[in-house]
Amino acid sequence: MPNTKSAKRALRRSLKRRERNRAIKSRIKTLQKKLINLAESGDEEALKQVWREFQKRVDKAVKVGVLHRNTGNRKKSRTAAQIMKILGRPVLLG
After folding, report:
1. Could you identify which of 3, 10, 38, 39 might form a hypothetical disulfide with 86, taking C-beta atoms 3.0 to 4.6 angstroms apart as the criterion?
2. Per residue, what are the HEC states of 24-38?
């Protein structure tokens, strides 16, 4: 337990940040799963829409410091590679 006023404040801040970070990471993982399912179903229009949302969320997570820059780029790259592997051809996800 924190003893000083500033330590109590820091604890409250860290708990809020932890909650926010977990929510952001969870949303990214959910979007990854959704992308894989859409690639398997073959719905390209929905796939492109969710891909844009996925990229936006990852980039924002990097911007606010939830993810490291390289981690964000790696997630986008590996997810795109998985989608292309499922579809069996390159796809412009743009």
Report:
1. 39
2. HHHHHHHHHHHHHHH
Assess contact for 83 and 93: CB atoms under 8 A.
Answer: yes
Kindly report the pTM of this predicted structure.
Answer: 0.86
Domain, as residue range, for 65: 5-87
CATH code, domain carrying 73:
1.20.58.110
Q: Which of 17, 92, 94 is nearest to 61 (CA)?
A: 17
Domain count, the chain: 1
Per-residue pLDDT tens digits for 70-89? 999 999 999 999 999 998 87
Flag whether 68 is in a domain. Answer: yes
- The Cα–Cα gap between 2 and 10 comes to 9
93 belongs to a structural domain: no
Answer yes or no: is 32 within a domain: yes
CA-derived radius of gyration, the chain? 17
